[in-house]
Design goal:
The complex is a heterodimer of chains A (173) and B (56). By secondary structure, chain A is α+β, with helices and mostly antiparallel strands. Helix content of chain A is 47%, strand content 20%. Chain A contains 7 helices and 7 strands; from the N terminus they run αβαβαβαββαββαα. By secondary structure, chain B is mainly α. The chains are: A alpha+beta (173), B mainly alpha (56).
Chain lengths: 173, 56
């Protein structure tokens, strides 16, 4: 069984200077959601140079295409990734990593997600760009999958709690 | 049972104390705690699956 290690995946992405935003379940956890996840969802900038860097990072992770059954080994480089219209699900030495290029919702593609994301320190010396909670909720609502229905109540209650704590803080100022 | 409400849950049925526990941690602590729990759960599932296979 492969240990899920999103820190090492992000460290490699950063070392290769990949432009990306973390979204999905792991981003939700960073924002305060108590719902566990075992994959790392990222939206990369789709410019060709960035996809080349992403390809190098994925090779360092020994990434293979995740399918039902055994993973499929193939050459994953910039042009290969560029040919993927919507998403690419991968398994790596550090767990599952899903690339998404056109997430559901009104945030749009990379530029939209990056606009509302913030840089967060997730481990010593490791800073990543994390999607906003509002964008995560909007995307999950639009995707409307069974697993989104399970996590949405937690995310909406998290948003309420953050607002409540913010109002409480302001009223004490 | 109509109208009964679990006092530790909000109107969505979410135990808000779990969210408060997360918010009391730093972002790095949240990440590490979730990863630790997720890997533990996966290991437990794997152990249970192996045990089932052995008893067949």
């Amino acid at each position: 069984m492969t240990e899920f290690d999103p820190f090492e995946m992000c460290r490699i992405l950063n070392e290769e200077k990949v432009e990306y935003v973390v979204l999905g379940g792991f981003a939700a956890v960073l924002r305060g959601s108590p719902v566990t996840t075992r994959d790392l969802d990222v939206i990369p900038d789709r410019n060709p140079e960035n996809l080349d860097r992403l390809g190098r990072a994925l090779n360092r992770m020994n990434a293979m295409i995740r399918v039902v059954g055994e993973p499929v080994a193939t050459k994953i480089d910039g042009p290969f990734i560029a040919n993927m219209p919507h998403m690419l699900n991968l398994v790596s030495d550090f767990g599952d990593i899903d690339l998404t290029f056109t997430p559901a919702g009104s945030t749009g593609e990379f530029a939209g997600w990056k606009l509302n994301a913030t840089s967060e320190l997730i481990a010593e010396g490791l800073t990543v760009s994390v999607a906003s909670l509002d964008d995560i909720i909007d995307s999950k609502k639009t995707a409307n999958r069974a697993k989104d229905h399970l996590s949405l109540p937690y995310l909406e209650s998290l948003r309420d709690e953050l607002r409540r704590q913010s109002n409480e803080y302001l009223s004490n100022e | 049972m109509d109208g009964w409400k679990n006092p530790i849950e909000d109107e969505r049925g979410v135990d808000i104390s779990q969210i408060r526990d997360m918010l009391n941690m730093s972002i790095a602590e949240r990440a590490h705690e979730m990863v630790r729990v997720a890997n533990l759960m996966a290991k437990a599932r794997e152990t249970a699956r192996e045990a089932r296979l052995e008893t067949r």
